[in-house]
Structures are given as C-alpha cells and as structure tokens.
Design brief:
This protein is of the alpha+beta class and about 140 residues long. The protein has a single domain, classed as Hypothetical Cytosolic Protein, Chain: A. Helix content is about 20%, strand content about 20%. The protein is built from five helices and eight strands, in the order H-E-E-E-E-E-H-H-E-H-E-E-H. It has helices spanning about 15-20, 80-90, 90-95, 105-110, 135-140, and strands spanning about 30, 35-40, 45-50, 60-65, 75, 105, 120-125, 130. The radius of gyration is 22 Å and the shape is globular. The termini are far apart.
Length: about 140
C-alpha cells in the first residue's frame, strides 16, 4: 500500500483516464437529421417559437439559433440540406422539441439557403397530421 490509501500496481486507477470530463474540448450534441454526434459548434441549434396571440391551432415556427442563446428547448442539426431533409422527413423536430401539431420549418430552410416554400409544413385535411408541401406534391399519382 502507498501512503494515503492509494493502491499501486495492477489495481491502481489512473485518475487522468477515469475522469472523462477533460477528454472533450467542448460539448457534443446529436444531429436530429442524421443522428450523428458532433461538436455543438458545428451544429445549428433550432428552437420553437410560438405566436402568443394566435392561439393553440397556429403552427409552431422553428427559428434557427446560430449563436446558441435563445431560450427554450433546442434541437441540433448539421447545417446541410441532407440533414435538414432527413429531419423534416422523419418529423424529428417535433419529437426533439416535444411539440404536437403543425411545425413551420421555413425559417430554418431559409437560413440554410434552401427554398422555404418547399419545406413549409401544413396540416393534412383528413387526419390533422402534418406533411410537408414537398411531400404532398411528390406523392400524387398520375392518372
């Protein structure tokens, strides 16, 4: 035994390896699109913003938060069109932000340089579920 109670030899614990807090320079987050893990500085944070006077039936608007400072729950996304498309297709923003109802992603699409009208979410008539405008236009079968 080494004085002070620490063990030596094979049973010794190297605290520099056991303490995992110092291994990463900055926090890691998971992209809601590709589900890949990356540094928080490489990801775009997205928060939900509601219109106070619109009531419960209005769609929730997603706002990009490039400075990571807006209040509220955030979803993290690689700032690429591929990850954005996957997140919209999988309805990942609603799950990550714990939202119910329609979600308007046009502000995020605009921030990423995509055409916002292509990705605006609208409620489906029969079920009240949401589908993107792009999904509605590509799912029609020709006569």
């Amino acid at each position: 035994m080494v004085p002070g109670g620490a063990e030596s030899g094979a049973d010794a614990v190297d605290l520099s390896v056991a303490d995992r807090t110092g291994l990463r320079d900055e926090p890691f987050r998971t992209c809601v699109g590709c589900r890949g893990s990356d540094s928080w500085s490489a990801l775009l944070r997205v928060v939900a913003a509601t219109d106070e006077g619109a009531g419960d039936s209005s769609p929730v608007t997603l706002r990009p938060d490039p400075r990571h400072r807006l209040p509220g729950r955030g979803a993290w996304l690689h700032p690429t069109s591929d990850c954005f498309e996957m997140a919209v297709r999988r309805k990942a923003f609603g799950r990550a932000l714990r939202l119910q109802g329609a979600v308007d992603v046009s502000a995020v699409a605009e921030h990423l340089g995509l055409r916002p009208e292509q990705h605006a979410s609208v409620p489906t008539p029969a079920t009240g579920r949401t589908r993107s405008v792009r999904d509605q236009s590509t799912n029609h079968k020709a006569g």
